[in-house]
Structures
1.
Amino acid sequence: MNGTLPFALAAAGLVGLGLYGMLAQSSVLRKVIAFNLLGIGVFLVFGVAARRGAAAGLPADPVPQAMVITGLVVAFAATALALVLTLRLHQTTGAVTLAEDPPTANSAAPSE
C-alpha cells in the first residue's frame, strides 16, 4: 500500500458524500455544505494525481497546484453567493428548503 491510497479513498468518499448530499437533501444550507464536500474531494483528487506523478520520478507539475488554488478561490466565492441567496430566500419565503410548488392564494379558492 503506497502513501497516496488513503488520500485517494478519502477523496472518493468525499465526492460520494457530496453527491449524496446534493441529491438527497432538501435544505439549501445542507446542499451548500454538500457542494463544499464535493469540491474538497475534487481538490484532493488533484492533489493525489500530482503526488502520484511526482512519486513516479516525473518532474513536479505546478498545474494541479494552480488549479487547486484557483478552485479554492472560486469555491469560496460560490459559497458566499450561495449563502447570501439562502439568506434572501429565508427573508422572502420564511423557509430555507426548496418546496415543490408552494400553494398560492388563487389555488386555495374553489373554482366555479
2.
Amino acid sequence: MLDTINSNVNHRIAALSRKGPTEWSDPVVSWLIFASVNFFAFILLWFYGLAQQAIAGDPTHITLFIVAIYLATSVHCLWRCVAVSRQAAAEQRLAKDITGAVDKRHRIMEVAAGLAAGRGGSDGSHIADHIRNLITTAKAGGETRKLDQSLLLRVLAERLSGSNSFGDFAGDLVMKLGLFGTIVGFIMMLAPIAGLNTEDQGAIKSSLSVMSEGMAVAMYTTLAGLVGSILIRIEYRIVEAATDKVFADAVALTEVHVIPVLEQAGTAQ
C-alpha cells in the first residue's frame, strides 16, 4: 500500500501546508452510485428475460451461487466504505484542529497532549492512535531530535486497510467458480458421447439435448464468473482509493504539523 501512494504524498503535503486539509470524496456515495447502476442493469436483464434464462439454463445452480457471493461481498464492501469514511472524517477533524493552531506551538502541544491522554481518539480514529504513538515515541526518544515514523506508518496502513484484501479473495473465488462451472458444463456435454448409439435416432436427439444443456451451463457460469469478478474488483477499487487518500492525508498532516512540533519540543527541552 505504501508503494502505491508515494507519488501522491508530496502533493498532499504541499496542499496541506498551503490550504489545510484536502477535499474529500465520500466512498459511500461512490459505492451507492455504482450499486444503483448495477441494480438498474439487473432490472433491464430481468425485464428482457435474460436473467431468468441464465438461471433456468444452469441446473447446477453455480450461477446463483456466484450471484449470492457477489451480493454478500457488496455488503462487505459497503461496510468497508463506511469504515473508511469515518476514518476520513476523524482525520479531517484532527487536521482542522491542528492546522488551525499552526502558528501557536503551545496550542498544537495541547492538542497532542489531549490525544495522548485519550481525548480525540475515542471514536476509534486510527490517525489519532498514530499521533499518540508518535508522541510516545518522542517522549521515549530522550535526546533524539529526529523522529522516524516509517514503521508506524506501516502499522497505520495495515489498520486503515482492514479487510480490504477480502475483495481480492472474493474476486478470485468468483472467477474460479465460473471456471469450475465451465468444466462441469463440458463434462455434462461430453458424457453422452461415450455410450452414444449412432443407429438410435431417439438416443441421438436425447444426447444433443443433454449436450446443449451442458454447453449452456459452461457459458452461463463462465459469464457470471467474469462479470462478478469485474464488478467486485471495481467496488473494492473504490475502497482502496479512499483508503489511499486517508493514508496520504495522514502522512501529510504528521509530516507537516505534528512531527516538527514534537521535534521542536524535544529540542527546547
3.
Amino acid sequence: MQERRHTAADSRQRATAFLAFIACAIVAFAAVRPASSSSASGAATFDIVILNGRVIDPESKLDAVRNLGINGGKIQAISTTTLQGRTVIDAKGLVVAPGFIDLHAHGQTPENYEHQAMDGVTTALELEIGVSDIDKFYAERDGKAAINYGASVGHVPARMKVMRDPSMSLPSGDAAHRQATDDEIRQMKEILERGLQRGAPAVGFGIQYTHSASRWEILQMFEIAAKYGAACHIHIRDMAENEPANSLQALGEVIAAAAITGAPLHVVHISSMGLRAVPKLLHMISAAQKRGLDVTTECYPYTAGMTDLSSAIFDDGWEKRMGITYKDLQWTATGERLTAETFAQYRKGGGMVVLHTIPEEIMQIAVASPLTMIASDGFLQDGKGHPRSSGTYCRVLGHYVRETKTLTLMQAINKMTLMPAKRLERLAPMMKHKGRIRIGADADITVFDPNTVIDKATYEQPANYSEGMKDVLVNGKFVVKDGQLQSGATPGRPIRGMIRKGSDASY
C-alpha cells in the first residue's frame, strides 16, 4: 500500500512538471510569435507602423484596410487592430503594396537608384546584358545602394572580353561582327559558369547586339544556364515581321534552346522586338507554357525604346529591319530628331538614341497581357536618357490603371512585384521574401496615392521624378519619406544566388 502511495505521488509530480513545461512553452512561443491579423496586440511596439492603408498583396489576394508592424527590416504584423510604433505612418486613403521589382535596369548607379526609388522601385536588377565579373559588380555597390541591386553574368560582356572588343558598353568590333571559334566558345562558357558559381542570379543575352553568334554558340550558353537552373534573360536576335529574319523566328530560336536544354527562358521587352507581331509572340509564349516550358516575358509602358547608336543594331539595313527612318530617332543629349547627316556624325562617337517604333495599340496589348511583367530597361546618365528610367512604374499605375483602365490595381501590382520575384526564386531564394505583404517578408514597401500617382518624365526631360509616391521602404528603412528622397540612405542589399564553395573569385 505504501509503495502504491509513493507511485501515485510520483505520477502527480511528473504530471505537474509536464503541465508546467507546456505552460512555459506556450508563453515562450507567444513571446516570439509575430502578431498577425488575428492575434496582433496593441501592447507591442514596432520600429515602424503603417496605419489605415489599403494593403494590396498579389500572393494572398488581400485588398483591404490593414495596419502593418515592422521590426528588424521584416513585416511582423498585419492587423485589423491599432499597432504602436516608434515611427508611425498614417496611410489612410493610400495604397500599401510590396516594393516594385525591376528585372531589367541597366542604370546600376546612385543616380538611377534614386530615380527608381521615387518611382516605387525597391529592387533593380541588370539581367539582360549583365556583367562578366560578378564579384566586382557586387563589391562596388556594397553598402552604397539606396535599393536592392544585382546583375546577371552576361553572354555579351563575356563575348566582348574573349574577343577583345574595344567598346566600353555594347559591342562594336569583333564581338558584334565575327563568328566565334570553338575555343572562344569554350572561354565564354567558362566565364558564364564562373559567374554562376559566384552567385549570379541569371544569365543575360543580347543576341541582336551579337548577331554573328551562331545558333550553336547560343545553345552552348543555354546549357551552362541549365546546369545551374538559371533563367536566360534574352534580347532576341531579330525584330518585327520582315522575312526571313524576324521576331517570330528569333523567339522560336530561344524557345527551342530552352526546350532542348531545360533552361528557364525570360524574353525581355517583347513590345519593342515584336512591334506589330506582339500578339503572335504572346501566342507562342502561351503555347510554350501550356506544353510545360518555363517561359516568361516583360514589357515597358512606352512607345519608344533606347539603345547606343554605335551598336551593331544600326549596321547597314537598319531602316528596313526596324521599319523606321532617321526622323524616328531622337538623340538623348539634345532631344533633336536625326537626319542622315547627324546620324552619320553621332554614330562615329556613339551615344544613346531613342527609337520611336512601337504603336500605341501594341503597347496596350503588351501591358494588358497576363503573360507580361513590367520592367523598365532604364538607364540615366547625368539626367539624360529615356523617361522609362524615372517613370515606368508610376506610369503603369497612373496611366494604365487609373486613366485607361487597361489593368486593375491588383493586376498591375502583381506584374511589378510577385511575378518578377517568382521568376528569380529558384536561383536567388531571398526573392521568396520579396514582392509580398505577409508575415516574415522583407519590409520592401511602397505607399502611394492611387488618385494622383503618375509619371512626370518625358523624352525631353527624362529625369523628372514621378509623383504620388509617398513612402518607400527598403529592408525596413526609408528611402522616400513624405514624398521626399532621403539623402544618404543606402539600405539596399545584393540579390545574389548561392556562392559555391571552392569557386574561384578571380576573373
4.
Amino acid sequence: MARKIIAVIGGSKPDAKSLKTAEEVGSLIAQNNGVLITGGMGGVMKAASKGAKNAGGLVIGILPTTKKESANPYVDIPIVTGMSEARNMIIARTCDAAIAIDGKYGTLSEIAFCLIFDVPVIGLDTWDINAPIIKAKSAKQAVEIIFEDILK
C-alpha cells in the first residue's frame, strides 16, 4: 500500500507557538509513516519539515521558485514549479489530507483548493471560516484524526 501524503500548510511568518506546533505535527506525521508535503520554504513549512526529517520521515517541497536551492534544508525532494502561489493547487491535488497551521491568504487558498478537491483539512489556530474544516486542539489530535479516523 502506498504511503499517505500529508500536507502541512501555514504561515511563512508565524509566531513561536505555531512553529512549535508545526514541528510537532511534522514529527508525528513521520512517526505514522506518512510523507510530508509542504510549499518547501520557511515558517510553518520549514518547522514541519524539520520535525519530519528529525523523526526519519520523507519531506517533499513544492517550491514556488525556479531554483531547487530555495528549498528549506529539510526538504528531501524539491519540486521546482516557478509558479509562485499557483503551486498551492499542486499541493492540494497531491495530498491525502492537510493540516493548516496559522497562515494568511496563501494558506486560505490552499484550504480552499483542498476543499474543492474533497481533501480533508484539519485546522490548528488557522482560518475560522464557514467551511468543513475539522478543528483540532493539538498537534497530536490533528495527526490522530488523520491517521485513525480519516485515512484508516
